[in-house]
Design goal:
- This protein is an alpha+beta fold and 136 residues long.
- 19% of the residues lie in helices and 40% in strands.
- The protein has helices at residues 2-14, 78-90; strands spanning 23-25, 39-46, 58-72, 96-99, 102-105, 111-112, 116-118, 121-135.
- Strands 1, 2, 3, 4, 5, 6, 7 and 8 form an eight-stranded mixed sheet that branches.
Amino acid sequence: MSVVSTRTALETQLATVTFTGGATAYENVPYTPVAGTPYQACYCLFASPDNPTMGDGFNRILGIFQVSLFYPLNTGPGAAATQAELIKTAFARGSSFTSGTVTVHIDRTPEISTGRVDGDRFHVPVRIPFYADIYS
């Protein structure tokens, strides 16, 4: 359940960020974008776990929580950049979020990547590095 709790903690924190005029698309949940309306999609990109110790049931979940912002084309980068900054602030380095018995830590400053055209949208990814220590 540690992977589920990790995702839940991150998605719950994302839900605290005001997203004016748009909706959030979650992994494996149906969502149809509305023409002319921004939306964000979130993904938990899990990496190989870290095993810094032997024989004690400890491992560390590592990954990136990516929030992809999709804005209508030809409206400039300002709204997407503003939303990206709000997300970056909500997941500031040193913050932590808990779901069940799992606490997720943000150990590095989130990265706002370069925007690019993706179909009929301007896409700006925000990448949030995280880890969670698991004791079994």
